[in-house]
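Holo prediction. Input below; ligand is protoporphyrin IX containing FE.
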Amino acid sequence: MAETPHTEAHAHAEHDHDHKPHGWRRWVFATNHKDIGTMYLVFSCIMFFTGGAFAMMIRAELFKPGLQIVDAGVFNSLTTMHGLVMIFGAIMPAWVGLANWMIPIQIGAPDMALPRLNNLSFWILPFAFVLLLSSWLVPGSAPAGGWTMYPPLTLQFGASFPMLIFAIHMMGISSILGAINVIVTIMNLRAPGMTLLRMPLFVWTWLITSFLLVAVMPVLAGAVTMLLTDHFFGTSFFNAAGGGDPVMFQHIFWFFGHPEVYIMILPGFGVVSEIIPAFSRKPLFGYEAMVYATASIAFLSFIVWAHHMFTVGLPTSALLFFMFATMLIAVPTGVKVFNWTATMWRGSLTFEPPMLFALAFLFLFTIGGFSGLMLAMVPADFQYQDTYFVVAHFHYVLVSGSAFAIIAGVYYWLPKWVGRMYDMTLAKWHFWLSAIFFNVLFFPQHFLGLAGMPRRIPDYAVQFADWNMVSSIGGFVFGLSQLLFPYIIWKCVRSGQRVEGTRAWDGARGLEWELPSPAPYHSWTIPPTEAMIARGAEH
Amino acid sequence: MEAPQRTRQPVRIVICPNCSLSLRGAALFFGGLCLFCLTLAGVLALMGMWPVLPFAGLEMLLVGWALHASLARRYRSEIITLTESDVSVESRDRARCQLTVFQRHWAQVKLRRPASQLHPSRLTIESHGRQCELGSFLTDEERYGLALRLQRLIGRINESPSLASGPK
Ligand code: HEM
Ligand SMILES: [Cu+2]
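Structure of the complex:
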């Protein structure tokens, strides 16, 4: 029959623009998951550069031994604020942003389950960070007791202390709201036919991440509240003089903290599990094993917390337990690394920017995992603890792990979001500069740590001078090269070449690629069919 | 393919939002989550760290509310009935039920393009300055499918030449 439904509805829809709020209202009252996702990502980018600026100052101070640029107090504030801003401001919101953008599309849902809650959970964040960052201006300056906020040190700050606590509360609330939204969306809004074991791995890893968030965020909230009452209301939760125990704070902080590090990495596992198959042109090796490995990692993350506290004087039995439990994590992590590698085995690989970042993730995250295993050995950790070795470890897992996975995800899905392709050459420059100078920046810190340089100090013995200078140079180039990232995105949005067809990448699978880019408002004459879902789920 | 001239019998289209979680599933899930989180907070409380407990409790309330709010979708439905002369739309919620009737001859099915490309489209049936939104809980693609189907069914009999007139 000579019917042309497309043009009919098209013609009809063409001149019927919907009058939705424009301008700033669109963003302030946003309920659309794509708008909110975009805001999260932009926010995260701003925080990434804010935290990055602190890091540049830290590296500048450490360029040479002696105090040159900042005094010791400011230095401590810089490290503390750097940690807090990067963890709560850059990495976590970036994941929530990606979740907002991709989860509804990937499971065939019209939006997130609770759009207004979604708006709230985003808008809490800017206030939390204005509060936190403005603590630089109050008497006594910004918090300086480390992102881990251990008492009694943290209790000794001035006006910045309650600001820190309230900012943490707000970030926590925002994370909880985000996590609840993700859980409900995935549980209740999956398209017919999208069974749990057909969900893309990014969705799976986010589901598990949001359980972790729901489980541990109240613990963090409780912990900082107790700090607050110890400071202002004379309670003695952590005050030895009043019968409390400062080490107890470390226990509950790390009971939150270790799952928190997995909260930051698990969605990265998901992203990499989508990208590697796409650029290997092969289905992911061992889909179900990946799901179970993620779940086991999440479970184990609850019983390893005291590996951050080996030197506080735990009983030997506890040391042994936490050592072995920590080492156990290497098993499911190993399964994952094996599966990613096996996915590439005999695939027809190409090396576009998302794949490059995913591969860097694979290599460098694994290095971070190995240094983690070294730290997990109790006798060895007695030496490494609180040295630059730990700093090297967590930057390998957090920067080349979480941050690279976020960048990989953005490079992978950006053409989907804006319907345009970015400048591939520039993105490759971004990659090579990042990958090389990341290692120049952090690899020498392993040597420094093993040689005994403590972390969180503004000055150091002259024997550490050479590697610190190398590290600082690496830091400056790494930091500067990150400026390419927003530029590449901006250029892509403004003037990138249009992407034809539904797939920006020929090997990409999944529901999100069944629609033309960017996802338009009338593209399918039929709802997502079982066949499409099955095609996306060809693991 | 439904053609307008053959719809002597009333046509009924029922659309409802998709809920992948059953009530039982939700209850089990919520129970399990509460058990886990509250046990955890309870143990901490026994160790003297009681301030964790109210936060955990509040959070569970929030999760419960969120599940409840999302599950309320299952009570929504829209029933579109087409008779020879009328198009009626019945929007149902758990308690409410709203009926809008249009004259079929004048009814228009419109799929509105969003102001921003990233926003969802909106589907309405309208005539005589009244309008009724349909399928706001569908995905864009489903809504487009529905729009096409309705346009074919209702036909643009108010346009000339009418769809019904010519051989297709
Ligand atoms: C095989 C997996 C891992 C193992 C065995 C491991 C082990 C450890 C150990 C034993 C420590 C304590 C070091 C010390 O303070 O002396 C540590 C610190 C740390 N780890 Fe890991 N880790 C692993 C993965 C990760 C991941 C995936 C992340 C984050 C994405 C991460 C982030 C951190 C951070 C931030 C610290 C430092 C915390 C601080 O003191 O400020 N780790 N890790
Ligand atoms: Cu840990």
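The pocket of copper (II) ion (ligand 2) is lined by residues A 258, 261, 304, 307-308 (CB under 6 Å). That is the main takeaway for now.
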